[in-house]
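Morning run. Coffee first, then this:
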Amino acid sequence: MRSRKRIFCPYCGSGIIGRMEECILRDFCPHCETFFYDNPLPVVSAIVVRDRNVLLVKRGNKPYRGMWCLPSGFAETGESIEDAALRELEEESGIRGRIAGLIDVDSCTNFFYGDLLFVSYEVEPSGGSLRAGSDTVSAKYFPLEKIPRLAFPSNERAIKAFVRGKSDSWAIVDSFSRSLGGKQSRDKNLLSDRIVEMIEKNASRIVLLWMQDVLASRSTEGYRRIDRDWIWKGVHRIISQFGKWLGGFYSDKDVRGFYLKLGSGSRREGLILSEVLSALSLLRKHIWEFSLSQGVWTSTLDIYTALELDRRIVVFFDKAAFYASRGYESGG
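And here it is:
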């Protein structure tokens, strides 16, 4: 074990003494006039993830026999740290791979090995077959949220760092997949739902700004003759329940019926169709301007959230404009 101290010089056999060098007490051979340096042992770990399941191996030797860990081991003299990670991965799990990136570097003191320097890489599998290795008794994938207690805290730290690094991209993928799944559940499960909730909470503010715009715009002059309460109630219902309109709470039949009625009612109020469509366009503009005012859209996740919301708004208002037009044309 690393805790054992030198007694004799390995070169001349003389007794070892302690001597200060650069404020550090080191082993020293007075006959050879040589200092001996004890440095942390370099340990490599490979993080291989498949469908958000991480590859772990069960140790077959002491210390920590029977515990799980990342494929890990000591780098050999003359071996690059990257090659060591790939070698240990194949030896312990049967998986060949290529380095995708450095994930974490951690230093720690181990009761058995002494001072260690853990270097953890993300590795993309490129071949081989999953099997136990020479000093492991099992190799299997675990869901990242259900990994067992690991032999080395540095492995746990590296996995957490890996998950943090992937969280934004996974959130985007998840949200995109759900958005393509057709009708959504009532649960909030898209990245842009947070902004949609803020739109609903600020419905009165958005409707007020929209009404000021509609009543002043030359493209919607007919609205100046319409009862203000009728205008407010209809538009406030749209904004205050915006998430329900977007998220599948209301069926396509509900959306069609609401906007057919809006179109036919607008005709009875004496509005012309271009004014109705222009009013819807202005509403979409005010919703989007409010959304952009809610944050600084700089990160990849923020930009995707904005694009996702824009796509949802476009789809909704395309339907609204189409059905409002149909309702206006049918007159009832």
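The first strand starts at residue 17 and ends at 21. Good start to the day.
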